[in-house]
């Protein structure tokens, strides 16, 4: 079992930035590739970013590429999402998720392959 708790959400103006954190507890954090997803009102949850167990491989949705950066600190049992140049369309509840099936450098954007989820943190970007 892995418990995930997101923090760092809030309200910002367009062009601003936020840094989301996800703290993990439970089994060895480095056993899990990590992902960030988001869900806007009335829309399905979508992939945002993923990072491998080592932290050496990352993947991003096209909509956030060049603006968002995912990182992790295995010694802190934490994963982060630095979000810059925020847009109103980035408004959503952001979730972190843990995937226990990936090899050391693997990542996945497929929601169904993640085993554990946090409760989410709200990000609101105003124009």
Structural description of this entry:
The structure is a single chain. The protein is mainly beta and 127 residues long. The chain is built from no helices and 11 strands. It has strands at 2-7, 10-13, 18-26, 33-39, 46-51, 58-60, 68-73, 78-83, 92-99, 116-117, 121-126. The strands form 2 sheets. Strands 2, 4, 5, 6, 9, 10 and 11 form a 7-stranded mixed sheet that branches. A 4-stranded antiparallel sheet has the order 1-3-8-7, with no helix packed on it. A hairpin with a 4-residue loop joins strand 7 and strand 8 (78-83). The protein starts with a strand and ends with a strand.
- Taken in chain order, the helices and strands follow as EEEEEEEEEEE
Roughly what fraction of the amino acids lie in strands? over 45%
Largest sheet: 7 strands, mixed
Mean pLDDT: 96
Say what oligomer this is. single chain
Q: Ends: how far apart?
A: 40 Å
Nearest-angstrom radius of gyration?
A: 13 Å
Q: Structural class, from secondary structure content? A: mainly beta
Low-pLDDT ranges? none
The coarse silhouette is globular
Helix segment count?
0
- Number of DSSP strands? 11
Approximate helicity band: under 10%
